[in-house]
Amino acid sequence: MSEEPPEYPDPDELKKGLHVFIEQGHGKAPVEGDIDAVLGEADPKGERVKLKSGTEGVVRRIEPSGGGGPQPT
Asked: Where residue 22 sits, what CATH number does that domain have?
């Protein structure tokens, strides 16, 4: 059983303060945190960001409860 590839979010969705999960590289567990800066498209799969913790990586997914607009009920 293999893991499905992540669906990387659209770059227009990413903004400072958004809570996301990022990939740092093959074999490393995803890291979660709040975006401090969007660094740009450094990877063909997604946008590279810097978290408030200082960790950098490619956004794998946006955490729905991480602020922003209304939540589904």
From this structure: 2.30.30
Question: In the numeric block, which tokens belong to residue 9?
Answer: 């979010």
Q: What type of residue sits at position 69?
A: G
- Collapsed DSSP state (helix, strand, coil) of residue 70: coil
51-72 confidence digits (pLDDT tens): 999 999 999 899 876 444 443 4
CA distance 37 to 60: 15
Rounded to whole angstroms, the Cα distance separating 27 from 70 reads 34
Kindly state whether residue 57 falls inside one of the protein's structural domains. yes
Q: Is the pLDDT at 49 greater than 90, yes or no?
A: yes
